[in-house]
Amino acid sequence: MSTSSVSKGCFVFKPSGKKKMRELGLEDHFAEGCEGAENTAARFELCQQLWDKLKTDTEALQDELNRKVLDSLLDLTRKCSTTRQHSDWASKMRASEIPTAALVLGVNVPDHDMTFQSLSELLQQSVTPHVASVQAKECGTLKHLMKRVLERLTGTAVDDEEEEEEGAEQTSTPLHKSSHCSLSTLCDWYNAKARKSSTGTPGKKRSSPTKDEHQQPPVVIIFKDLEAFNPRVLQNFILICSLYIERLPLMFIFGIATSPSTIQHMLPHSVSSLLCIELFQSLSCTQHLATVIDKLILTPQFPFKLNGKVMQVLISIFLYHDFSVRNFIKGVQLALLEHFHSQPLSVLCCKKKQALLNVTQLGHLDLERVRQLPSFKRYVERQEHQEQVSLLTDDGHLKEVCQRLIKDLRKYHKNYYPVLRCLHTLTSSLPRYPLGKQIRELHLICLEKNVSENEDYQSAMKLLKMLAKDELITLLQRCADILQSVKSKKMRTAHVQLEELLAKFKQLDSAAVETAPVVEENITSPVRNLQKKTDLFQLQKTLLEMNESRRSKKLSPFEVLRNDALEFIDGLVKSHLCPPESQTLNEACYYSSSATVRRHLNAAPRTSIQAALRTPYYYIQNDSLKTEDGSVSNAAPDICIAYKLHLECGRLINLFDWLEAYATVVSAAEGNDPDSDDYGKVDEVKHARFIQAVSELEFLGFIKSTKQKTDHVARLTWGGC
Amino acid sequence: MTALLQHPGYEDESLQRVAEQLPCREAQSAVLLSLMGQPQQYSYPSIFIYGHRASGKSHVMHVLLRELELPHATLSCVECVSGVLLFERVLLSLFGHEAAALLPRSASLSDFVRVYRQQCSLSPAEQTRFIVMEKAELLRDADANLLPALLRLQELVEDNVTVVLLSEIAWDKFRPNTGCFEPLLLHFPDYSKGELQQILSQDRHPSYSADFYSSYINILLGVFYSVCRDLRELRHLAALNFSKFCEPVAEGKVKETDTHKLWRNIEPHLKKAMQTVYLREVSSLQWEQMQQMEEKETGVVRGLSAHTHIELPYYSKFLLIAAYLASYNPARTDKRFFLKHHGKIKKTNFLKKNEKTSNHLLGPKPFPLDRLLAIFYSVVDNRVAPTASIFSQISSLVTLQLLAQVSHEDQLDAPKYKCAVSMDFICAISRTVNFDIVKYLYDFL
Ligand SMILES: Nc1ncnc2c1ncn2[C@@H]1O[C@H](COP(=O)(O)OP(=O)(O)O)[C@@H](O)[C@H]1O
Ligand SMILES: [Mg+2]
């Protein structure tokens, strides 16, 4: 197990994309080390367009998702500013509490910034100009908190003793002497503001009539990350604010990552009784991700695609590590950038018209690349001999074929997503979710390989056969609705077929009233019981029984029709849900290097340090350090040798033995005669080099000094070699 | 009462007003008045008043100083985060803006004394000046010389000034061990039930009779007196629930005098208030809304503490589980729990009787990072690379206050943590990842 100074830290990975794109001459950066330099400019442009679209789309989506919570929050703030003016008996007698909104946002802290950003913008637009957000890390003490709040509200720098101390006392009589950080300053400021807005600037005020004049806009303070605040600081701040609540219409918003009960953990009753806390719960991050995937990934609008593995990496980072939708999007961004950077054929990854145009502009080199694509090779193999020859030799012909292939790829996508949704609709409510509960799970299965060959798919189909009639009909109806809105020839015919089937089901309904409806009952009901059963064995047994009982009976008209319907669905799945790898030219649109994404987004610092120590030739690009058996060469940097030697030791390492071993290795590298007296002797230089290597290892967290034995150090890592 | 009504040097009228506003605090105000003496006479240098929250300390001081029109400065020690702010406030209230502006920017105590002397030589005191410091217990955390200086400020500035300290903590817990000037101590005892009744009954609603309101207060105190004696809080609760109390009267169902019926109507409601609004589980705004629609839908309101569920990323859950195990299991038992072939660990040795079951009573113990990770890797079901995100999740858990960092933040080498979640919480978390945590807890073996 590891423990060390370095490996403890947090390594924040900043995706290179955004930065690269905003800097001057990014295009040159992009072109650097780019494969297939001819069309970098075009690719860069495409990449940027796609990213801009992705970005605006996600932002719009996020705004929409947050709208409900934010709206109710805005309502509260408005209510606060109006109820304050009441002067009936009850409100006079009541202790004046500070209105507080507890906004529960979930543990995906990186995503919160955006929410707060839009929240404070909304507040400023529609409720009050006085909004200040503070973060725990800038408010370690009460004084800092007060200062930040004042600064952000008044928009001016507040005088600070510390700064002044550094400023060498040259300004002995500053102008705004009384602008010490205290709420009374804020009160004065607020009153001055209120007076100004009620008397002055009549021209601007005309639009909002007299109603506004009595209303005091509240002063909203947003604590972005409540849990991270020092409880004492927060308590004192609230105590102070409550002293001024009569004079200053304050209001708090607490951003909570965990659960609202933390408020009670952080604030004693004497403090929480000064607040009037309303709870607001935002959408959970898993739902958020589901919407993002649904709206941005599972759509043919966006030509750039992730293959199964990359998708898997991004989703598992989300589920296992951070729950952050923002990081997920950044992952997509990274993949986007990498794709356009490393795949010359990515010029074809764009809107249809442009892609077709770009095909005509492909150079000979690019066409050779097309010929090298695995998917294209497979395509060629399927052609007749004559065609094969012309594909491989005739550039003009290849271009034509490419145009057709691009169109095919587009059609594939157009059909893939609706069918995927249909299949998900049908299977997502089955017991035990054989094909997953979320559509992204089904999508991953489909990306991986042919779903129809999947065992789970078979069992899902079997379960579907056991659905009661009305259940099946509603599901099919929903599928029909999905297909209806798709603009594709194939889907349109599929929709017509499905509607016909549904019509037949309905006819059956009216017919069945006359004939015996009893027969169906015992066949269709078991699936209801199945829902309850959790035991797999039981499930299989019932399935088997039902199969047998069915075989022995003659099929009822409903069963015949149901089988038709399911066969129809099966047909759709088989023809449209094949994995993208099977599509020719998929490499142009699909990004597949999951290892790159993983390495960038989920860095393993210790592993890379160890790799660097073990394979220095690779890192310092010196092939002379390479050895046949892969071990570390004698001539490697000192730290590599020391590291190598320390791997052979136990928990405690005797420094002297280590030094001796090191000296021997280094002497061998120097080419000294093994029989001479000096060989392996420790001279001053070697000693110094050794000490340096050891302290470097200590710095990297591989060893540390121990109190058990003074001339020993303790090893901190195990394995890894 | 009579003692209050006549006092040399003050007008009878204002004394009358004071007496009206300070019911049940006659004795204390009389003592204070006699300490203050006549306005122009020097008073005792420092007075220390202590008593529980809402025992009327601030109220009494405020009423006295306002009604008797004495020059004073009132400030709260919470607000004066630094000495400078305190000095500035005092000068501002006693001598005005110009005086406060004379203080240098990072003023020390001696600067304050200098400016004060200079100012009071310009405007000598005709009446005793009072400096009232609220929440004086916070002065203990301030500069060591601030409190002793304030206690003998009269002597330092050579002015007719008295410092009044208001505190919820007795003087014994205050006294600096180096010794200092002893202030006069004055205790404000808690209000008795009868006194509370008398004070609260004064706020009667203008459209109802005094008796009616008084009977309401009586019922209210019957419910709440056992849990809450805080006057401010009681007044708040009274205001919140009064509309419910008058409801039957307003609807004409019950007469104002039918106390029993009124009691039957309000008592369950107040009981409910005790578990909700009083604990701030439900905000007063929500409470009022609930009252209005209660008839139609008595939907179960979930208080703040009912929301304890937290969604965490998969590995964070396991890190938290590992932290819990590390906090509540003795380190020497790790081998037994997490090593497949733990060889011979003698049963008798392993189970030390007195140690058992006590771990949960003793609370979480700190553990080093490597132990956390060692346990984490053995409880999590698949191989996990030691990536940066695992480490940043630990930091996140600390910021979310689910883990507590015991060692100092700057200590990069072998940091120590404690698990800060409850047994219920961790059991709920473990259930979501199908991990039977009880099997791994030494206490439950
Ligand atoms: N004797 C009293 N008569 C009327 N109101 C009182 C009395 N004592 C306290 N109060 C009220 O109770 C509340 C709390 O009193 P306060 O003086 O602030 O308590 P303390 O300073 O001891 O914490 C104030 O709103 C005050 O008006
Ligand atoms: Mg007080």
Describe this structure in words.
The complex is a heterodimer of chains A (721) and B (445). With 721 residues, chain A is an alpha/beta fold. Among the domains of chain A are: 182 residues, Rossmann fold, CATH 3.40.50; 126 residues, no CATH class; 111 residues, no CATH class. Chain A is built from 36 helices and ten strands. In chain A, the strands form three sheets. In chain A, strands 2-3-4-1-5 form a five-stranded parallel sheet, with helices on both faces. Chain A starts with a helix and ends in a 6-residue tail after the last strand. In chain A, 36% of the residues are buried. The N terminus of chain A is likely disordered. Chain B has 445 residues and is an alpha/beta fold. Chain B has three domains: 176 residues, 3-Layer(aba) Sandwich (Rossmann fold), CATH 3.40.50; 114 residues, no CATH class; 109 residues, Arc Repressor Mutant, subunit A, CATH 1.10.10. Helices cover 48% and strands 8% of the residues of chain B. Chain B has a five-stranded parallel sheet with strand order 2-3-4-1-5, sandwiched between helices. In chain B, strands 6-8-7 form a three-stranded antiparallel sheet. The longest helix of chain B has 20 residues. Chain B is flat, with a radius of gyration of 31 Å. The termini of chain B are far apart. The model of chain B has no long low-confidence stretch (mean pLDDT 87). At the A-B interface, helix 1, helix 5, strand 1, helix 7 and helix 8 of A face helix 5, helix 6, helix 12, helix 14 and helix 15 of B. Bound molecules: adenosine-5'-diphosphate (ADP) and magnesium ion. Adenosine-5'-diphosphate binds next to helix 4 and helix 12 of chain B. Chain B: Keywords: ATP-binding, DNA replication, Nucleotide-binding, Nucleus. Chain B: One of its GO terms (cellular component) is nuclear origin of replication recognition complex. Chain B: This is Origin recognition complex subunit 5. Chain B: Component of ORC, a complex composed of at least 6 subunits: ORC1, ORC2, ORC3, ORC4, ORC5 and ORC6. ORC is regulated in a cell-cycle dependent manner. It is sequentially assembled at the exit from anaphase of mitosis and disassembled as cells enter S phase. Chain B: It is found in: Nucleus. Chain A: One of its GO terms (cellular component) is nuclear pre-replicative complex.
